[in-house]
Fold this sequence. Notes:
5% strand; elongated; mainly alpha; 4 helices
Amino acid sequence: MAVAGRKPKPPELRVIEGNPGHRPIPDNTPKPSPKAPSRPSWILPEAKREWNRIAPQLEKLGLLTKADRAALAGYCQAWARYRQAEEIIDENGFTMMTDKGNEIQRPEVSISRNMLQQIRAFAAEFGL
């Protein structure tokens, strides 16, 4: 089975970058109105701060539409959880001792790594 390869960039992002590949930019792609969706009330406080930071920038570039609410919420939540895990690692280190005296990796190290993978995946959706 063949690997799919890199996902194509949104046409708006290719225009912003100057279309470095000089391939034709399709003009038949759906174009929802470039307007930021409303921020969900249920996301974590750090996720709300990240939403307030990144949403206006993405909207200004024309890379954010109302249809992107779930993807942006996922990105922001992953960012908040990554920050939580990193704060615990900063305070307590990368390892911890078990009840039997064995030193093991702190669970937050894996959480941090997994959240970074999610952040990268969501960020790629927005061309970041």
